[in-house]
Amino acid sequence: MTTYFSEPQSMYYRFGEDQEQVLKVLAERYIGANAQADFVYRVFQQSGILQNDKGLYDLNMSKRFPDASKDHISYAAALVWGDEHRNLDVLVRCYGPVRFYFNNELIYRSTVIDEITPDATVKLGIDIQPGWNTVWLEMKNTPAGFGCQFGSDEGKVRILNVLAPFHERSGQAGWVFSEPVSSAHAQPNLLAGQEENDLKWLPEVQWSASERNTPALERIYGLLPGRHAYAWTHLDNRDATGRPVRLTGQSQGSMRIWLGGQSVAEVIEAGPFDVEVTAAFGRNDLLIRSECQAGSDSWGFELKALIGTEALQLQLPHRVQGASGDCWLYAGPFEAGAEPELSDLMRMDRVYQTSVAKQGSARTYWRLDRPDAFIRPYYENAMLSNKWTVGSVTNYGRWDYPLGVTVYGLLQAGRYMQRPDITRYAAEHVQACTQMYEYSLWDREQYGFPAINQQLIMLKMLDNCGSFGSAMLESYTECKEPTFLPIADRIADFMLSRLERRSDGAFYRTCAGEYAENTMWADDLYMSTPFLVRYARVTGKSEALDEAAKQFSLYRKYLFMPEYKIMSHVYDFKYEQATQIPWGRGNGWTLFSLTEVLEALPEEHPERPALIAFFNELCEGYAALQSESGLWHQVLNNSQTYLEASCTAMFAYGFARGVRFGWFKDPSAYVTAAQRAWKGLVCNAIDRQGNVHGVCSGSRYAFTAEYYDQDLRTVTNDNHGIGIMMLAGTEVAKMEQHLSDRITNSPVLSASAASAAH
Domains in the chain, please, with CATH? Predict the structure, then answer.
């Protein structure tokens, strides 16, 4: 028997059969551990090192220094912050000789094969420590090439954010790199000043002396007659007496001023201005629209805010790391007539169209008065390691498939308990992602790879979109968020029109050059069909529901194991056979998703009878393999593998829904199995603090049970298990209420009660 804690620590010991209390603790523990902190905004210099579409940083020094001498050396340096220990695989692709140091230790020295073989990739493991970690690359110029590509393996999933070293750039995102030098240099202290070593570091962090003598908008955008730009700051009024505020300064062109969203002044011509306004106590949005006038030899403005003779502080309107000393954000330059709505300005979730033409027009975002210095939001919360573990940092603001199940679980548990605070939290997690969707697309266009919403934007497989997309549509009923539907349309187009299929129409993974090349996974039924069900429900497009039903029939053909009436995890088309390993959670995904499709299918749908029969076959197979504890094994037909919690929760969920919706011919055995599964979970997998144990980490695949049992170990509070625990508990409770109501309302009981009354 697999044990994760002693009996007095179990949820059952503390709360017994009180399912609502169990759901409450599960939901509240998760919310308490995952604070609503979404993205970190940082300064990033666009002239710095950009990423490619794989998420690798492209340090091609030949392009940056085409005249560099042979054997000259360039260095690149970065910092990586670790909230806790994290093991990560990184990739290096050499253009020439490279040495890679991590935390001052030589991790890799390129071989001649690495240096001269196009697209040769080396995978290296690094251990990120809590606190600051240093990255140092030494790259030598040869006729074969100069530099390298560097980044994390599966960069859209296992994110590697790098920050600029040296205290002059503290808080900025990105690498620094040196001009080529003729001799090797030792790694300097990357947390000290960059002037403490004799390398010339790029990109430039400050304007040149001549540029500093130019008005701000001119040095940022140049002289562009007829164009205009916006500047945004916060005016901090700490005067409690209500005295008026004077805005005084100099303008190099016409200018309009808004304070607190209200137009308070307009400057028609270049020259000094002095206006008196009323400002609320505290922080006030101050917005300037400045126009570059024809014939003018400068463009910009200077502004001070005073109460009497005391200057009021101007502050950045949003927290931006790496922007110490700055107080204005800038957006532009806009063509005449390209005027953003005032309601769209003074916010961080908009990208601004700068030309009148609607199609293919240039767009922009907020930036600083520094060389090429734009503001970028970064996802910097819980980070995946090689084993899919994320540690104890908040998951809020992350778009990925395990969190799709978590959001769904929170929504259903919150609805069942009539807790709008829980459903609101779940919906707001989704909104944190979707409200930055348009920005994320622009971010990828500008920088090669997005810094947020990586999986949604770099949409290449079902894992990237289906689960979280389904949760997004489920939460649409809670918030009617307008950003959801355009994203849902894009996901639906990907699934229905662009996703790889076999000749019979079955979804599968091509994954050229990767370990999963030419495979079909049972998991992908969950990554696709629940989304298609909800998309059909929200949009009325029945073809999405038809596709969901069709995929089950197709997957059954490849993955069903008739001797056990369960599913193989994967079919490998390279070998033209299924692995014949019935991984528990892969089967759980199958049953879970099938119930979602059956709930939505009309009675007259032609696929419904076959899918009802398939559902009964699977449930018969799963029920036969349930252990004495109520849990199922990691490999379902191998009792020597450990007992696993997430598949158990999915089977409980599926059985309970089958009973409630009347899909079983004889439901009694499945009532018992669902109840045994739930009791097994609260006794053995959910402790009294709401921590979830016994959930295996994210899987690859194998033809042996040993991989699933020995390599895929369990992780406490793994995101693959938390949401499904809430869903299982909710569905078992609904099943029991359904059975109670049915008995209470039965004709026999009603007649008996009437007889007793007489």
Answer: 1-33+625-758 (1.50.10.10), 44-202 (2.60.120), 209-369 (2.60.120)
